[in-house]
Amino acid sequence: MTAVDDRPMTTDIVKFFENFEFPEEFKVELLRGEIVMMAGPDVAHNDIVEAVVDQIPRRRWRRLQTQDIAILEETSEPQPDLVVLERGVGPGHGRLMPSEVITLLLEVVSKTSVDRDYGVKRSIYAAAKVPGYLIIDPIMAQCVLLTEPTGHGEDADYRCQRITKFGDLAPLEPIGIELDTSEFATYEKVRPHRYP
């Protein structure tokens, strides 16, 4: 039995989520027992993900877009915008990537995902002990790198936080690169928020 199969099924929600056929035009995630559906992303969002993928060396890193994640001890199956893990690590097939093999997760904030990306996903990814969580925020024109996960469950968080404004180089220590953010676009006519 794999680590993915060892997740506790404390409720039927995980089975329901894994067996239900959701409409293809929606991104669907299971976050702490809640099913979250979102419409497709903004073009600026996709351009940012593409720009990041282009900068992560393929020889050393697997760069998986919209890969579902399995997290032990969580009723969560998030689908980050980008999953980065060492080449040669993790399964080569299947829907779920075990969180314990992941080096960096990336979420690009959308107009409706601010609270989830900065709040619940921050806690979920820290609880999963993912070494790096990068939030790219086209609303506030900033990148937030979170490292050193600590704690368990809803109390989990990251000890270190580094904020880089768009246009500057963003150090991504977990994968050993500096990310050029100069091409990252911002959303138009969106109200600023209070995070991080």
TrEMBL record:
InterPro entries: Nuclease_put_TT1808, Restrct_endonuc-II-like, Uma2. PANTHER family: SLL1072 PROTEIN, SLR1083 PROTEIN. CDD domains: DUF820-like. It holds the Pfam family Uma2. It comes from Streptomyces hokutonensis. SUPFAM superfamilies: Restriction endonuclease-like. This is Uma2 family endonuclease. Keywords: Endonuclease, Hydrolase, Nuclease.
